[in-house]
Amino acid sequence: MPSISEGTITAPVAGTVRVNGSAQLSVRVKKHTIFGAALVFTAAVGFSAKGVLVKIAYSLGVDPVTLLGLRMAFSLPFFVFILVWSRGDGMGWTELLAASGLGFLGYYVGSFLDLLGLQYISAGLERMILFLYPTIVVLLSALIYRKAVGKKQMLALFLSYGGIYLAFMHDASFNDKNILLGGLLVLGNGLSFACYLLGGGVVISKIGATRFTAVAMTSACIASVIQFALLRPLAVLAMPLKVYEVTLAMAVFSTVLPAFLLSEGIRRIGPERAALVGAAGPVITIILAYYLLGEPVSLLQIAGSILVLSGVLLISLEK
């Protein structure tokens, strides 16, 4: 009978079949990659569900200020715990203020603009506009750092914004609200997040991604709660249990978990592969919105989605 030992299979007949260390390493790398892709995909599902959950909350009579306050209030304990757990070694006042300011801009201002925009446009269109942030980074880099926009990037911009135009036409076919205002508000979220990414690179290199995310999100959560306290009486918290279930789901499954699942996924498979997997996000939102909200799907929307995904991936995978 063949004898089996760790890493090697030997047979008493002529010839030897070996599963050597490099083969085992290859299997481990494949498992590592598959698991990383699964993390990124799960994060994409969580982020994609946010717009749908917001629409459900609006149908229950919640306003944007209250919704953002509840979402961030539920999220705050998680980020504070992560901040304490990661400790503040090597983080001075300069880094703390920079991370807090970027979090205020990217996640408080951006999130509030996004919630306001979702009052006017579909969840599918919102996710496609947010998916444009790599193109906004390219445009900001050209303006701030005087980086030239190449032919491939120009093509990507043309595809992306052409796709958004088609998506707007789709929304206009069934939506009688001010979709231009809604689109601009959500685009403001994308602009805020692009600034967050551009400014965050320097701070992350000094204090690390985990602490940076924890500080930035804690800042955004506190700002959101303060806004609610200033603009709304506590009496508005007397809402049905369903509202709290939806906002808690937004906090856990569309805010906290996706943020760290995505970071871990990128660490395992790299940003290029993560971009490929994350491209499923707008498609997931369209599917969820169709089944859970009854938002219509048309060939115009599908064509727009394909153009947006093509343009953004062309930029994201340019290397």
Key structural traits:
319 residues; mainly alpha; two-stranded antiparallel ribbon; 11 helices; 79% helix; 2% strand; globular; disordered N terminus
Concise overview:
This protein has 319 residues and is mostly helical. It is built from eleven helices and two strands, in the order ββααααααααααα.
Model description:
The protein has helices at 21-59, 64-86, 93-117, 123-130, 133-144, 151-172, 179-207, 209-231, 241-278, 280-293, 299-316, and strands at residues 3-5, 8-10. The chain is built from 11 helices and 2 strands. β1 (3-5) and β2 (8-10) form a beta hairpin. The protein has one domain (29-316). It has a two-stranded antiparallel sheet.
